[in-house]
Design a protein that fits this description.
BirA Bifunctional Protein, domain 2; 16 helices; YbaK protein; 5-stranded mixed sheet; 31 strands; alpha+beta; Rossmann fold; 27% strand; 590 residues
Length: 590
């Protein structure tokens, strides 16, 4: 391709509303163009990147034994009601009424549709296992689309679904997809961390997220650098290490203190002139329809996923003030564990405190000097809070760090959540009808593109990974009339293209500096400059995008030398991917 014939509308100025580096650079490099809030067009360069990502995904999914299909984006709402997720998604579900007054939705995901296909076509255990996938446009009525193509209302996803007879089959299907994901992200050339994750509203009991570390990421990644343990904030376990303190059973009896109008932890602690980490807050939830209580240290945040597991509930949500008052007889702001009448679970950090400040279960009253285990029961003590920096690792003696990340992929073991709800059954070897066991595996295709930019850019522009760059080699002839320059340019183009690399020739009638700035902006990994002066000296100039300065190589045999450099880089990247695969094989997944 010649630049003069291509649509590459680069911009020198940063768009005023762009914040994330990927948003700024994808707009400035002419790869995307915004149509409206959360809706983007992919211009030719951006579409080339997107298609390269899709090609890698398709190759690896096919190699893993998955079969591609295509499901409609338009879905009957009745399917969502049948699965029980209609209320869960709420306003995120884009809904519309079509002719005949049919209530439809634009699919944010396809569990219901694929389960409907399975229940209609899968009848016998002999048809299992099977994994189906698609690459399809999704829709969510995202209330705050932002960061360019990272959070949009219309987006492209690869979603796959496995159907298995038993847990052993499911584990094999899950492992196949897990490894396929690793190969996909390795080939795309983006740094990623695999973290243990909560399944969330989609359902299931085991899952992993694939995260790209980024300061603009909206997810927190909890990591132990000592042993490699990693989890998202909803899932991260906190090690059960000795806290160094324990309840002071010899302490004097607790005191009742008037705290007029002081309802929040900060207000109470300021009023009493004590640190927030010496207090505890009692939180009331509704777990499967029943009020329950959790006691968390004042400076900690409750983790609802851990609370749900602690109470063995399928669903849990904060209780409304009226529900709290009815269940406890006490308004919000003065609740405490002493004499509490509803089921109580206590966080480990609170159970190890010598004494604690808590609500007095009476308006405008708090208790000081309350001793855990003496003044309120410690019948159920577990990890209930969000992990943070410095917390102990559950796998070793290390401590946690916290970084931000962008989720690019997620794998779930769904179990029978959808097959039971929607009647997707098969006959087993004994002829008995049983629900199919399912897995779900999603990749945000757009997010791979954005994450590659978030992870690879500098002050001058994008630094694309070689495999997904719109063009891998840029040739810049400094003269458009010199026959030797043009002949050398064509020789290099033919050799590089013949070796399987994509080539862009910047044949615009512009100054070299102007061309070089555009080259850095769009992020082509390898640049070749062919000029009259250089050829007179027998040289051409080459530069990897990430190199600080250009190098000269002999023009004679230069085309072959360039191909050798490119192939060596491909081999290096393959070697790194193999090393990561070997390291994974030596570790154990949960």
């Amino acid at each position: 391709m010649r630049w003069s014939q291509a649509l590459i509308p680069t911009q020198k100025e940063t768009p005023a509303d762009a914040v994330a580096p990927s948003h700024k650079l994808l707009l400035r490099s002419g790869m995307v163009r915004q149509l409206g809030a959360g809706a983007y067009s992919y211009l030719p360069l951006g579409f080339r990147v997107l298609n390269k990502v899709i090609h890698i995904i398709r190759e690896e999914m096919d190699a893993a034994g998955a079969q591609e299909l295509l499901m409609p984006a338009l879905q009957p709402v009745e399917l969502w009601k049948e699965s029980g997720r209609y209320e869960t998604f709420g306003e995120l579900l884009m809904q519309l009424e079509i002719s005949g007054k049919q209530h439809m939705a634009l699919g944010p995901t396809h569990e219901e549709v694929i389960t409907d296909i399975a229940r209609g076509l899968l009848r016998s255990y002999k048809q299992l296992p099977v994994t189906l996938y698609q690459i399809q446009t999704k829709f969510r009525d995202e209330p705050r689309p932002r960061f360019g193509i990272l959070r949009t209302r219309e987006f492209l996803m690869k979603d796959a679904y496995s159907f298995d007879l038993d847990v052993d089959q499911l584990n094999k299907s899950y492992d196949a997809m897990y490894e396929a994901y690793c190969r996909i992200f390795d080939r795309c050339g983006i740094p990623y961390v695999i973290v243990e994750a909560e399944s969330g509203p989609i359902g299931g009991d085991s899952s992993h997220e694939f995260m790209v570390p980024s300061s603009t990421g909206e997810d927190s990644v909890i990591q132990c650098l000592a042993c490699g343990y990693a989890a998202n904030v909803e899932k991260a376990e906190i090690g059960d290490k000795p806290a160094g303190t324990q309840p002071d059973t010899s302490a004097p009896a607790y005191a009742s203190v008037a705290t007029p109008g002081k309802k929040t932890i900060d207000d109470v602690c300021k009023f009493l002139k004590v640190a927030t980490n010496t207090s505890a807050k009692l939180l009331v939830y509704v777990a499967d329809g029943n009020p329950v209580a959790a006691l968390i240290r004042g400076d900690h945040e409750a983790n609802e996923a851990k609370l749900r597991r602690a109470f063995g509930a399928s669903s849990i949500a904060p209780a409304e003030p009226a529900v709290i008052l009815k269940a406890t007889g006490v308004p919000v702001g003065f609740l405490g564990p002493v004499g509490i009448k509803i089921p109580l679970v206590v966080d480990r950090a609170v159970a190890a405190m010598p004494t604690v400040v808590v609500g007095g279960n009476e308006v405008d009253i708090h208790f000081t000097g309350v001793v855990p285990g003496r003044d309120f029961a410690l019948d159920k003590v577990t990890d209930l809070r969000n992990a943070g920096v410095g917390d102990p690792c559950p796998r070793c003696d290390g401590t946690f760090t916290v970084t931000q990340g962008i989720e690019i992929g997620h794998v779930f073991k769904l179990g029978t959540k959808y097959s039971k709800a929607m009647g997707a059954n098969v006959n087993d070897e004994k002829g008995q009808e049983i629900p199919i066991i399912m897995g779900c595996y999603g990749i945000g295709v757009n997010r791979i593109v954005a994450s590659a930019v978030e992870a690879g850019h500098d002050d001058n522009g994008i630094t694309w990974p070689l495999a997904i760059a719109p063009y891998q080699v840029l040739i810049v002839p400094l003269s458009l009339t010199n026959e030797q320059v043009l002949a050398t340019t064509e020789e290099i183009r033919a050799a590089v293209a013949g070796a399987g690399f994509d080539v862009l020739i910047d044949d615009r009638d512009q100054r070299p500096g102007f061309k070089f700035k555009d080259a850095d902006l769009i992020g082509v990994p390898y640049r070749v400059v062919v000029g009259e002066r250089g050829l007179k000296d027998g040289n051409i100039e080459v530069k990897w995008r990430t190199e600080a300065a250009a190098r000269t190589i002999p023009a004679a045999g230069g085309a072959q030398a360039i191909v050798s450099e490119l192939n060596a880089e491909v081999d290096r990247l393959k070697g790194e991917a193999e090393a990561r695969k070997a390291k994974r094989a030596g570790s154990q997944r949960s």
